[in-house]
TrEMBL record:
GO terms for cellular component: cytoplasm. Keywords: Cytoplasm. The keyword Cytoplasm applies. It is found in: Cytoplasm. Residues 129-266 form the UspA domain. This is UspA domain-containing protein. Pfam families: Usp. It comes from Neptunomonas marina.
Length: 281
């Protein structure tokens, strides 16, 4: 591949670490990428996860291993990315975090500029449903992040022989003198029309989008469950600092309510995605 075909895999002691490593193997086999494995701790050679590492090495995929203690893990991940500029970070999703304590998964979404895949299950994406989540109330015509979400969802679906559907939510109608323009039917139709026009502009084929009323952190997980989605692709602007602590990010709020894998891309780092898609088109 012409783009930097390296993947950084973050491996901790969570039950989903092995699942994330297996997912990394499948993606590396499909893309020809090499793997950087970032361990949170030293790993005993008899642990089952080391059998997966041996399988990866035997398959011919290039692997480099790095080690960090828990207190420095995020800094080590960031330093590794700064040095190697991996096209993707993969990690098993940690759902055990507590309130008022920002979990590592959320910190990755806020601090790392490259796409982050958080793995939640071991089911194959092949011939499944991939959801591309966008905000239909935004000006999609000029929203480059949403365009990249749509392109990437379509690209992954093509590679996995899966089915891509677009999902989005619109806010409830407001009380207004112009009741017709604020009806749920009109708002839903406008959202669907905007998504369909954007797909046509990007020359992407799709069935009717899944449009629903309500906050996206509730509607998108509901749609994912309804469609039995294997993966949701979503964009984030990744607030940090006080704004992130108080307001959070839509992607983070959605993350905790999904049971499928989640691929999050950042507004500031989509060039690699475009290069990857154009390379394999």
């Amino acid at each position: 591949m012409a783009v930097n075909s390296r993947i950084l895999v973050v491996l901790d002691s969570s039950p989903l670490a092995e699942t994330a490593l297996q997912r990394s193997l499948l993606i590396a086999q499909k893309t020809g990428a090499s793997l950087d494995l970032m361990w949170r701790e030293s790993v005993l050679p008899d642990r089952p996860i080391m059998q997966i590492v041996a399988k990866i090495i035997v398959s011919g995929i290039a692997v480099e291993q790095h080690y960090s203690n828990a207190s420095k893990l995020l800094d080590e991940i960031e330093a590794c990315w700064q040095t190697r500029q991996q096209m993707l970070i993969i990690k098993g999703c940690d759902e055990s975090h507590r309130d008022f304590w920002t979990p590592l998964d959320w910190q990755l979404l806020r601090r790392m500029p490259c796409p982050v895949l958080l793995v939640k299950h071991d089911m194959s994406w092949q011939q499944g449903t991939i959801l591309a989540a966008v905000d239909p109330t935004a000006q999609l015509a000029g929203d480059h992040l949403s365009h990249d979400v749509l392109r990437l969802g379509s690209f992954i679906a093509h590679q996995a022989q899966a089915h891509c559907r677009v999902v989005g939510a619109y806010p409830p109608p407001m009380l207004s003198s112009d009741a017709q323009s604020q009806s749920a039917t009109t708002l839903g139709a406008n959202a669907e029309q905007m998504i369909s026009a954007t797909l046509a502009k990007l020359s992407l084929a799709s069935t009717a989008p899944l449009i629903g009323e309500g906050p996206p952190e509730y509607w998108i997980p509901a749609a994912a469950q309804q469609e039995q989605a294997k993966l949701v692709v979503i964009g984030t602007h990744g607030r940090e600092g006080i704004a992130g602590a108080l307001l959070g990010n839509t992607a983070e709020r959605i993350l905790d309510r999904l049971s499928c894998d989640v691929l999050v891309i950042k507004a500031a780092h989509t060039q690699g995605i475009a290069a990857l898609i154009n390379q394999d088109a």
